[in-house]
Amino acid sequence: MELAAYADYAVRLVNTEAPGRGTDDLRTTGDIARLLDAVGRPPSRVAESDVPRLRAVRTRLRAVFTDAAEGRPADAVATLNGLLAEYPVHPRITGHDGRPWHIHLAGDQAGAAESYAAVAGMGLAVQLTSLGADRLGVCDAAPCRNVFVDASANRSRRYCSDRCSTRANVAQYRARRKARATTD
Protein backbone atom coordinates (compact mmCIF):
# COMPACT_ATOMS: atom_id res chain seq x y z
CA MET A 1 0.00 0.00 0.00
CA GLU A 2 1.26 3.47 -0.78
CA LEU A 3 1.86 5.40 2.41
CA ALA A 4 -0.10 8.37 1.09
CA ALA A 5 -3.19 6.15 0.86
CA TYR A 6 -3.30 6.11 4.66
CA ALA A 7 -4.48 9.73 4.52
CA ASP A 8 -7.87 8.23 3.68
CA TYR A 9 -7.98 7.03 7.30
CA ALA A 10 -7.85 10.65 8.45
CA VAL A 11 -10.46 11.77 5.90
CA ARG A 12 -12.85 8.95 6.83
CA LEU A 13 -12.45 9.60 10.55
CA VAL A 14 -13.06 13.35 10.27
CA ASN A 15 -16.04 12.79 7.98
CA THR A 16 -17.80 10.63 10.59
CA GLU A 17 -19.03 13.94 11.97
CA ALA A 18 -21.08 16.49 10.05
CA PRO A 19 -21.09 19.58 12.29
CA GLY A 20 -23.26 21.58 9.89
CA ARG A 21 -25.93 18.91 10.06
CA GLY A 22 -25.43 17.95 13.70
CA THR A 23 -24.74 14.29 12.95
CA ASP A 24 -22.11 12.03 14.44
CA ASP A 25 -21.43 8.52 13.16
CA LEU A 26 -18.83 7.72 15.82
CA ARG A 27 -20.81 6.93 18.97
CA THR A 28 -20.36 3.21 19.58
CA THR A 29 -17.83 0.41 19.26
CA GLY A 30 -19.92 -0.81 16.32
CA ASP A 31 -19.31 2.52 14.60
CA ILE A 32 -15.56 2.05 15.10
CA ALA A 33 -15.77 -1.50 13.75
CA ARG A 34 -17.52 -0.16 10.61
CA LEU A 35 -14.84 2.54 10.24
CA LEU A 36 -12.08 -0.06 10.52
CA ASP A 37 -13.85 -2.31 8.05
CA ALA A 38 -14.21 0.57 5.57
CA VAL A 39 -10.43 1.05 5.44
CA GLY A 40 -9.71 -2.66 5.29
CA ARG A 41 -8.43 -3.12 8.82
CA PRO A 42 -9.83 -6.01 10.81
CA PRO A 43 -11.91 -4.62 13.67
CA SER A 44 -10.08 -6.26 16.56
CA ARG A 45 -9.73 -5.12 20.15
CA VAL A 46 -12.33 -2.34 19.98
CA ALA A 47 -13.24 -1.16 23.47
CA GLU A 48 -15.71 1.41 24.78
CA SER A 49 -12.76 3.61 25.74
CA ASP A 50 -11.79 3.84 22.05
CA VAL A 51 -14.90 5.90 21.27
CA PRO A 52 -13.93 9.08 23.18
CA ARG A 53 -10.28 8.66 22.16
CA LEU A 54 -11.09 8.52 18.45
CA ARG A 55 -13.52 11.41 18.80
CA ALA A 56 -10.73 13.51 20.35
CA VAL A 57 -8.35 12.53 17.53
CA ARG A 58 -11.09 13.39 15.02
CA THR A 59 -11.34 16.91 16.47
CA ARG A 60 -7.59 17.41 16.15
CA LEU A 61 -7.52 16.05 12.60
CA ARG A 62 -10.38 18.36 11.61
CA ALA A 63 -8.28 21.25 12.95
CA VAL A 64 -5.43 20.17 10.64
CA PHE A 65 -7.73 20.31 7.60
CA THR A 66 -9.38 23.56 8.70
CA ASP A 67 -6.10 25.31 9.43
CA ALA A 68 -4.64 24.18 6.10
CA ALA A 69 -7.76 25.24 4.16
CA GLU A 70 -7.80 28.64 5.86
CA GLY A 71 -4.16 29.37 5.01
CA ARG A 72 -2.57 28.54 8.36
CA PRO A 73 -0.17 25.74 7.37
CA ALA A 74 2.09 26.23 10.40
CA ASP A 75 -0.88 25.61 12.73
CA ALA A 76 -1.87 22.53 10.72
CA VAL A 77 1.66 21.17 10.92
CA ALA A 78 1.92 21.88 14.66
CA THR A 79 -1.30 19.96 15.35
CA LEU A 80 -0.24 17.10 13.09
CA ASN A 81 3.21 16.95 14.70
CA GLY A 82 1.50 16.68 18.09
CA LEU A 83 -0.53 13.72 16.85
CA LEU A 84 2.55 12.06 15.35
CA ALA A 85 4.42 12.40 18.64
CA GLU A 86 1.51 11.07 20.66
CA TYR A 87 0.68 8.21 18.28
CA PRO A 88 3.89 6.89 16.66
CA VAL A 89 3.83 4.36 13.81
CA HIS A 90 6.00 1.39 13.18
CA PRO A 91 6.36 0.41 9.52
CA ARG A 92 6.19 -3.25 8.62
CA ILE A 93 7.27 -4.98 5.42
CA THR A 94 4.58 -7.33 4.23
CA GLY A 95 3.56 -9.36 1.23
CA HIS A 96 0.01 -10.53 0.66
CA ASP A 97 -2.55 -11.21 -2.03
CA GLY A 98 0.19 -12.12 -4.49
CA ARG A 99 1.69 -8.64 -4.30
CA PRO A 100 5.44 -8.02 -3.92
CA TRP A 101 6.93 -6.90 -0.64
CA HIS A 102 5.69 -3.48 0.42
CA ILE A 103 5.39 -1.32 3.51
CA HIS A 104 2.34 -1.08 5.74
CA LEU A 105 2.04 1.27 8.65
CA ALA A 106 1.11 -0.20 11.99
CA GLY A 107 0.50 1.45 15.29
CA ASP A 108 1.91 -0.62 18.12
CA GLN A 109 -0.45 0.88 20.64
CA ALA A 110 -2.72 -1.41 22.61
CA GLY A 111 -6.09 -0.04 21.48
CA ALA A 112 -7.89 0.36 18.20
CA ALA A 113 -8.15 4.14 18.66
CA GLU A 114 -4.43 4.61 19.18
CA SER A 115 -3.51 2.37 16.26
CA TYR A 116 -5.98 4.10 13.95
CA ALA A 117 -4.76 7.54 15.07
CA ALA A 118 -1.13 6.60 14.37
CA VAL A 119 -1.83 5.42 10.84
CA ALA A 120 -4.19 8.32 10.02
CA GLY A 121 -1.71 10.90 11.27
CA MET A 122 1.19 9.42 9.33
CA GLY A 123 -0.83 9.13 6.12
CA LEU A 124 -1.92 12.73 6.39
CA ALA A 125 1.67 13.80 7.11
CA VAL A 126 2.84 12.04 3.94
CA GLN A 127 0.20 13.84 1.87
CA LEU A 128 0.86 17.21 3.47
CA THR A 129 4.60 16.99 2.87
CA SER A 130 4.36 15.61 -0.66
CA LEU A 131 1.43 17.67 -2.00
CA GLY A 132 1.47 20.71 0.29
CA ALA A 133 -0.82 21.96 3.02
CA ASP A 134 -2.97 23.79 0.50
CA ARG A 135 -4.13 20.39 -0.78
CA LEU A 136 -6.01 19.65 2.45
CA GLY A 137 -9.50 21.00 2.00
CA VAL A 138 -12.90 21.46 3.56
CA CYS A 139 -15.92 21.14 1.27
CA ASP A 140 -17.23 24.47 -0.04
CA ALA A 141 -20.83 23.21 -0.30
CA ALA A 142 -22.98 24.42 2.58
CA PRO A 143 -23.83 22.88 5.01
CA CYS A 144 -21.30 20.12 4.25
CA ARG A 145 -18.04 20.41 6.16
CA ASN A 146 -16.49 17.14 5.00
CA VAL A 147 -12.77 17.16 4.39
CA PHE A 148 -10.70 15.86 1.48
CA VAL A 149 -7.19 15.64 0.10
CA ASP A 150 -6.94 17.35 -3.29
CA ALA A 151 -4.79 15.14 -5.48
CA SER A 152 -6.02 16.75 -8.73
CA ALA A 153 -3.43 17.79 -11.28
CA ASN A 154 -4.52 21.43 -11.31
CA ARG A 155 -5.19 21.97 -7.58
CA SER A 156 -8.81 22.80 -8.30
CA ARG A 157 -10.84 20.58 -6.00
CA ARG A 158 -13.33 22.50 -3.86
CA TYR A 159 -15.84 19.83 -2.90
CA CYS A 160 -15.64 16.55 -1.03
CA SER A 161 -17.67 14.65 -3.63
CA ASP A 162 -19.39 14.90 -7.00
CA ARG A 163 -22.69 15.07 -5.12
CA CYS A 164 -21.68 18.23 -3.25
CA SER A 165 -20.21 19.75 -6.40
CA THR A 166 -23.42 19.16 -8.32
CA ARG A 167 -25.59 20.47 -5.48
CA ALA A 168 -23.50 23.65 -5.19
CA ASN A 169 -23.48 24.24 -8.95
CA VAL A 170 -27.25 23.79 -9.19
CA ALA A 171 -27.76 26.21 -6.29
CA GLN A 172 -25.51 28.79 -7.98
CA TYR A 173 -27.35 28.36 -11.27
CA ARG A 174 -30.73 28.83 -9.59
CA ALA A 175 -29.47 31.92 -7.75
CA ARG A 176 -28.24 33.45 -11.03
CA ARG A 177 -31.56 32.67 -12.71
CA LYS A 178 -33.49 34.21 -9.84
CA ALA A 179 -31.29 37.33 -9.91
CA ARG A 180 -31.84 37.73 -13.66
CA ALA A 181 -35.58 37.27 -13.25
CA THR A 182 -35.75 40.06 -10.67
CA THR A 183 -33.77 42.49 -12.87
CA ASP A 184 -35.85 41.83 -16.00
TrEMBL record:
Signal peptide: none annotated. It comes from the Bacteria. Pfam families: ABATE (PF07336), zf-CGNR (PF11706). InterPro entries: ABATE (IPR010852), ABATE_dom_sf (IPR023286), Znf_CGNR (IPR021005). Residues 135-177 form the Zinc finger CGNR domain. This is CGNR zinc finger domain-containing protein. It comes from Yinghuangia soli.
